[in-house]
Amino acid sequence: MKPQKIRLNRAEKSLQIVFADGEYTLPAEYLRVFSPSAEVRGHGGAEPVLVSGKLHVGIDGVETAGRYALKINFDDGHDSGIYTWEYLRELGKNYAKNWDEYLQRLRAAGKGRDPDESAVKIIG
Fold it and tell me: Where is the signal peptide (predicted)?
């Protein structure tokens, strides 16, 4: 199902996507850590790569990829993910669950959302 409207809000670092059956505002950080790229999804592995330190990431631009997807260019240089309409819809519908699971994975790995905090580890 193709979206009816896509709006990039650079100031709020989010992408608003309107489908016939729902409207979603997806933060850039969320889209970045759930990128469908091989870099994040892995190359056929079961567990996706845990991307951390993307709290401040923004979106430089978006462009359509054929009639089926969106290519998002992030300000950290990542631009290899092709987000199909169905995947964007799935990300919107499952935002709360996906985000909660992501935060749990970060905690379990001892990593954080802030790139400055991720680089510092206090022992003792």
Answer: none
78 close to 37: Cβ distance less than 8 angstroms: yes
Write the pLDDT tens digit of every residue in 70-120: 999 999 999 999 999 999 999 999 999 999 999 999 999 999 999 887 555
* Domains present along the chain, CATH in parentheses: 5-118 (3.30.2020.30)
Strand partners, 89: none
Beta strands across the sheet bearing 69-74 = 59-65, 69-74, 82-84
Distance CA 57, CA 51 (A): 12
- DSSP, collapsed to helix, strand or coil, labels residue 68 as coil
Contact by Cβ (8 Å): 1, 20:
yes
